């Protein structure tokens, strides 16, 4: 009998679990209410957490044209990772196009979760921080009192409170972090483009490095949730211009190095010959992705229909074909989702 520890998993409910991973069984779900049947044993979530011996589900790219629901689906996945009753994880949603306030408003309107924490700058550390410094800084954020904003501005009164407060939470709770990366410069030059990418890359590196230090240094019997899935919305605007293949590789490899699932949003377009560089950018992302979720929208007799198709899955077997796609709300006592 093998003593091998099974991999950790993230549950996303029916039908996403089943579509993403054929190991998930229809019988384990209430397909009417799109929920996991409570009390079931040996269930398998749709996403597998990576480890040093297992690549897990790998990095995920959600692609589609404007208006197909990419950001909403990614936000649903990130929210479920921390709020589903079978999950005990931290997650992060990094939007480069929406403010944290707008994201929280969207989540509230959908009735998904209230446990979101906004972070302005995730690198409140020294110039060359150690993993310990990064981990301890992240711990301060995760244990801060409710309604206490963690900011860096010297003129912000809340900043002094947050940096010096004694943690009021006895344990870390599952939550969604909303970090902010460096904003775009009003001016545009080759030097600015290079600077923006490296600043954002460094901040992302700090977040993942700190999360790994916390994971490796928590007490053996601790049940504190770990940061295991992070979304970037979107790769199209991570730099001033589409990232080259080397920059894309650096970002994707960063998530693999720190054993975190990356969820990347990619807005696609119909490219012309003059947009060849953009096309290469898109092709490189799709090549590096481990899972590609394609969202499409069509019109039929005046009605807009959305479809979801998992075009690629490198490490696990997906369900093939196009599937009707609809985001629906749920309430605190419902816990259901529709893919």
Quick one: biggest sheet? 9 strands, mixed
Rg, rounded, reads 20 Å
N-to-C terminal Cα separation, in Å? 37 Å
Fourth-tier CATH superfamily name: P-loop containing nucleotide triphosphate hydrolases
What's the total count of β strands? 13
Q: Going across the major beta sheet, what is the strand order?
A: 7-8-6-9-10-5-11-12-13
Indicate the percent of residues in helices. 25-40%
Specify the CATH architecture: 3-Layer(aba) Sandwich
Q: Quickly count the helices.
A: 8
Averaged pLDDT? 82
CATH first level: Alpha Beta
Low-confidence stretches: 149-165, 331-339
Shape call? globular
The CATH topology label is: Rossmann fold
Number of domains: 1
Which class of secondary structure composition applies to the elements? Answer: alpha/beta
Element order: H for helix, E for strand: EHEEEEHEHEHHEHEHEHEEE
Fraction in beta strands: 15-25%
Describe the structure.
This protein has one domain (12-324): Rossmann fold, CATH 3.40.50.300. The protein has 8 helices and 13 strands. It is α/β, with parallel strands linked by helices and 339 residues long. The chain has helices spanning 16-20, 70-83, 100-110, 131-142, 157-164, 190-217, 245-257, 276-288, and strands at residues 9-10, 29-30, 35-36, 47-48, 60-64, 89-95, 116-120, 176-180, 226-233, 261-267, 291-300, 303-313, 322-324. It starts with 8 loop residues before the first strand and ends in a 15-residue tail after the last strand. Strands 7-8-6-9-10-5-11-12-13 form a 9-stranded mixed beta sheet, sandwiched between helices. Strands 1-4 form a two-stranded antiparallel ribbon. The protein has a two-stranded antiparallel sheet with strand order 2-3. Strand 2 (29-30) and strand 3 (35-36) form a beta hairpin.
């Amino acid at each position: 009998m093998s003593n091998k520890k099974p991999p950790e998993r993230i549950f996303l409910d029916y039908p996403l679990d089943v579509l993403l991973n054929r190991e998930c069984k229809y019988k384990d779900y209430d397909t009417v209410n799109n929920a996991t049947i409570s009390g079931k044993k040996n269930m398998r979530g749709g996403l597998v957490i990576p480890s040093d011996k297992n690549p897990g589900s790998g990095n995920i790219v959600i692609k589609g044209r404007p208006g197909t629901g990419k950001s909403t689906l990614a936000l649903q996945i990130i929210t479920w990772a921390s709020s589903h009753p079978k999950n005990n994880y931290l997650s992060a949603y990094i939007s480069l196009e929406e403010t944290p306030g707008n994201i929280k408003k969207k989540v509230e309107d959908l009735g998904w979760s209230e446990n979101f924490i906004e972070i302005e700058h995730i690198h409140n550390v020294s110039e060359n921080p150690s993993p310990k410094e990064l981990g301890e800084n992240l711990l301060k954020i995760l244990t801060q009192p409710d309604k206490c904003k963690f900011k860096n501005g010297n003129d912000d009164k809340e900043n002094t409170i947050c940096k010096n407060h004694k943690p009021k939470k006895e344990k870390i709770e599952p939550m969604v972090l909303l970090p902010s990366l460096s904003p775009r410069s009003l001016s545009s030059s080759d030097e600015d483009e290079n600077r923006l990418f490296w600043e954002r890359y460094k901040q992302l590196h700090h977040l993942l490095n700190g999360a790994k230090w916390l994971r490796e240094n928590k007490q053996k019997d601790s049940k504190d949730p770990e940061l295991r899935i992070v979304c970037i919305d979107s790769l199209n605007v991570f730099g001033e211009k589409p990232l080259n293949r080397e920059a894309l590789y650096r970002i994707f490899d960063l998530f693999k190095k720190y054993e975190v699932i990356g969820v990347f949003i990619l807005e696609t377009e119909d490219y012309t010959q003059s947009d060849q560089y953009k096309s290469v950018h898109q092709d490189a992302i799709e090549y590096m992705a481990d899972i590609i979720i394609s969202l499409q929208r069509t019109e039929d007799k005046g009605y807009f229909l959305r479809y979801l198709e998992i075009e690629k899955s490198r490490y696990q077997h997906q369900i093939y074909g196009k599937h009707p796609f609809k985001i629906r709300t749920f309430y605190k006592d419902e816990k259901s989702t529709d893919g």
